């Protein structure tokens, strides 16, 4: 699954276009490397997103094409 879609489905970022813009700006890193929105997310990847002065670091635990709001939290775990 593409990184921008994963960020939207897991609800780490609200909209896919915002996720795409964040990737283009270099604010999203996977396994300590800056990646593009087209990066293919795999189980076990560590994603770090920089939001202004704070950053969020999560580990991918599940990949699904769509989820309910309650189940989205199971797609990752905070580090």
UniProtKB/TrEMBL annotation:
GO terms for molecular function: ribosomal large subunit binding; rRNA binding; tRNA binding. One of its GO terms (biological process) is rescue of stalled ribosome. Associates with stalled 50S ribosomal subunits. Binds to RqcH, 23S rRNA and the P-site tRNA. Does not require RqcH for association with 50S subunits. Residues 1-61 form the RNA-binding S4 domain. Keywords: Protein biosynthesis, RNA-binding, rRNA-binding, tRNA-binding. PROSITE patterns: S4. SUPFAM superfamilies: Alpha-L RNA-binding motif (SSF55174). This is RQC P-site tRNA stabilizing factor. Key component of the ribosome quality control system (RQC), a ribosome-associated complex that mediates the extraction of incompletely synthesized nascent chains from stalled ribosomes and their subsequent degradation. RqcH recruits Ala-charged tRNA, and with RqcP directs the elongation of stalled nascent chains on 50S ribosomal subunits, leading to non-templated C-terminal alanine extensions (Ala tail). The Ala tail promotes nascent chain degradation. RqcP is associated with the translocation-like movement of the peptidyl-tRNA from the A-site into the P-site. Coiled coil: none annotated. Belongs to the RqcP family. The keyword Ribosomal protein does not apply. SMART domains: S4. It holds the Pfam family S4. Signal peptide: none annotated. It comes from the Bacteria. CDD domains: S4.
